[in-house]
Amino acid sequence: MAVAKQGRSSSVLSSVSLQILFGLGAIYYIFYFLAVLLMIIYKSHVFTYPNNLLTLDLVLLFFMALLEAIRLYFGTKGNLTEEEAPLGISLGITVGNVILSVYFLVWQTYILRADVIINVVLLVAYGLEGILQIIAIAAFVS
What we know:
The chain is mainly alpha-helical. Helix content is 81%, strand content 6%. The chain has four helices and two strands; from the N terminus they run ββαααα.
């Protein structure tokens, strides 16, 4: 949509698809966080879970939740204000959360089939968001 103002045209560059993915990602991450937390509690009761590894898994999960909140804030802000810097910060934090998700997928103490499923869905969502963030940053810069 272009609006002419004194010989200039301005257009909206924000990505609706990216904004929808941020919203769906926030909802999914709440489910993901609760599911992983409940599975860690379950595994600590069913299996012999060394205390230091249980603590590590819980600390990483809560750290990931903090990063996710920051990532979604900067991503939403960058997309809606059409600024590449906040969107770039969000993209960088996405890389960190991908690494943490891979930890819960591959290196966690005990890995259940449910862990695999919810982490693969999360990684696919991060991949789609990352691609759309790069496209949005490219649109904002040009």
